[in-house]
Protein 1
Amino acid sequence: MRSPAEILIVLLCAPALSWASADAPFDGGGKPFEIDLGRMTTASRSLAAEVDDRLWVTALAPDKRSRTLASEAGFAIEEIRGGAIMGVALPETVDALKAAGIEVLAAVPLLKQFNAKDFPKEDGAYHNYAEAAALLNELAAAAPKLASAFSIGKSLLGRDIPALRLNSSARGPAPSSKPGIVFLGTHHAREHLSTEIPLLLAKHLVDNRDKPDIAALLESRDIFVIPLVNPDGSEYDIEGDRYHMHRKNMRANSDKSVGVDLNRNYGFHWCESGASSNPRSDTYCGTAAFSEPETAAVKAFLEARTNVKILLTYHTFSELILYPWGHTESPIPDAPALAAYKSMADAMAKMNGYTPQQSSDLYVASGDTTDWAWAVRGIFSFTFELSPKSLWDGGFYPGVPAIATTFAANLRPALYLIGLADDPLRAPAADAISERRPGRSGSALDRAPSVSGDGVAGEDRPVAAFGSR
Ligand code: 0X9
Ligand code: ZN
């Protein structure tokens, strides 16, 4: 847990560092995504929350007449090379060029061309948005019978929120009766390690898909990895070869401040204790529950996937395993479920060395992912605060070595949860058995004796909806 001094530093930093629409609903089932770098550009623009949608365009214009036509259409020609012209154009200008009979060879976001966002050089092993999306696409291409990549919806600035699904019999939006589990990363922009861990988990599962333990899990489960819930904030945080300590998304608030805290925007006890209604605050809850397209996309995604039984949302930092409630100090009232939560948290704590506790033991905060997912969807939901343990060990920016060490510590908890997804309520019994059998503890299959789902390739079928709790 953070010391008061650490919390003070974070809080002191937060207001000064807290700055920075095209709302797009969930696409209804997840269509394949292209790497869309979105339209956000520089820090100064994000302050004004303008959207820069200028494009760097290459078009065929072999003679003066066609160059004039292009120029009249609003194309700012910067270079003429051979028979081609290059320059800056708005999307509507591209349409006008085409209407004028000019062949457009390429049109890419201007800032992608000239001001790519990336991590500071020393942290280059971290995946920016384009790299994370590309890795998911690569994994899907490497294992087409198992993996499918798709978008769960658009971010505020129009970026796809990419997902990878691992299911041997259902792809993309297709329903599945296999027990489902979801791993989420980076609700908070600056918590980049929380993108890496689910990404590496996806890669580990794909790379090891033929190993017996992993193969059994993959055959019997419906696994979703959504490593970058807040792509706009995350890209902004690494803009300009330095970090911005940005936490929220990139919503332009009415008072000209920027950002809603996505982990205060979920719709259960929304904007109560531990959430702020001040837009400048780093814990600003937004104008309404699910006002942000990123949280709305997660909501729609989970509502469409009634087979999902477990959710793990990765955050950083402090090395904690948190379970509901977070909005109140009271424990959840469902005794068997609470016993299962505690048992799972304790078992995972033995694997990664983190501290297990009720979320509100850290601090009371309302509107987070796990309270909503548990209360409204009945999904056993955990928050991991990944490494490091403290601000003095690197805080939000622990460097490249933290990626491998943190993944090594957190692989077993992830496999453990995947194994339990068929029936999380069996955790106390399963954990008691594995404790009596030292040496086998932590094996993925040890925790997954009960394999449900149809198990028949190509024959997935829908399941009944979860009731609310
Ligand atoms: O405050 C948060 O959203 C999470 N911590 S972080 O440093 N990553 O911002 C913790 C959320 C835990 N949930 C509650 N305490 N309700
Ligand atoms: Zn966080």
Note: The domain at 4-113 is CATH 3.30.70.250 (Alpha-Beta Plaits).
Protein 2
Amino acid sequence: TPANPDCDLLVLGAGPGGYSAAFRAADLGLKVILVDQYPVLGGVCLNVGCIPSKALLHAVKVKDEAEQMGEHGISFGKPKVNLDQLNAWKRSVVKQLTDGLAGLAKQRKVEVVTGRGRLLDSHSLHVEGQGETRTLSFRQCILATGSSPVVPPGIDMGDERIIDSTGALQLDEIPERFLVIGGGIIGLEMASVYSGLGSKVTVVELADRLLPGVDKDLVKVLRKSLDKRCDSIYLNTKVTAIKANKKSLTVAMEGSEGESSERFDKVLVAVGRSPNGHGIGLAEAGLSVDEQGFIAVDEHMRTAAAHIYAIGDLVGQPMLAHKAVHEGKIAAEVCSGERSAWDARAIPSVAYTDPEVAWVGLTEEQARAQGINYEKGMFPWAANGRALSLGGGDGLTKLLFDSESGRVIGGGIVGPGAGELIAEVVLAIEMGAEAHDIGLTVHPHPTLSETVAMAAEAAAGTLTDLI
Ligand code: FAD
């Protein structure tokens, strides 16, 4: 350790993981420096991820609902989209949050340094800012450099009509024909935004279903809605080449029915993200990444060097902001001498599509693969009054319970507000709740939350029979 380091803790990357770590460590009394290449804090999530996407999804949801109400006796006239205003509003939502972070950093006396950082050795970081370079020495360090979009082989991102999620969120025009490559969360959220704004949207997915890995019963409900919103959805299909012409992009695809080609005005590449573990001087500090580019950490978020920690998208799946935040807090506490460890039983995921899909813990397929005997409780929303009044009658709540212990091991919800509702299932898993614990809990009526209680009750009947 250097005799007089510039700080107790240096945090590289100011996304949800990095700023949470920096703030927690400062609260615990450490002298903290937070380094990011951008002057605005918040990382991908606040600036070009979670927040701007949710603002746009809300806007199209309001528009869709206004149109739907026309069939139920309230008509507003055809909604008009003003892209400049929509973009300005989205930016203002982001700015309120990022300004808030700047204030929180100042309050805690966290020093923010702007520039690209690279480890020089295990106790110092070289920062290249605009016209200025600095070397910062540290006692301990947390790496939180996040992830970047993957570019599949054969696709040249050089043409400005071929965009990644950041480009898609800029929304400088509404293309007539919009292709989304990748039927995962990000691809489907952006497909929802663009179809809502009036583009003819096509989705291409390599796997045999949308949202690969998610429970089939949930995906089926989303698929029904997407079939109405989208022009076409191709599964088991690969984009092999994109040819840029003056007027359009010709996209070659290879699917189960052979090769084909179609023209689009804009193409979003959303095939996944890879961790930013390169170019940050890991080798200089005696560290390395695995084949997928992740840095290995233990439950204290420690890397192979005991005083260097890593968190967030950089250390593994799921690449989600709430995972980064929790890991950031643990790393900060361990840096401060506390004995914290990562011990979450479950991490929820949400696709903020219309309808929303949320899931946590095991799916049926995973439970079967792990040889776990389970009982399931399903509650279709067609029997829930609140869901019907919200136009969410297609929704579904599904819970899985371990047959032996009766405890909830997984759950999935599809329907309006699924992302909010899943929190109860996450808490139930964390607390080891059994079906009766959820079913006997009085839920307010009429709400969507009743579907969680009803699904648990449905399973409780079967579980009681087993006892
Ligand atoms: P990041 O947020 O990626 O932050 C890393 C920071 O490090 C960046 O600011 C970067 O500039 C900086 N950095 C990297 N290298 C260097 C360097 N060498 N020097 C200096 N600075 C550096 N997650 C959710 O939970 N919910 C959602 O709804 C959601 N929606 C999303 C929508 C989109 C379109 C995208 C792209 C992502 C979404 N995510 C969502 C994922 C979420 O954004 C990430 O999981 C989260 O941002 C990860 O946080 P992090 O702290 O690990 O890294």
Note: The chain has 13 helices and 22 strands.
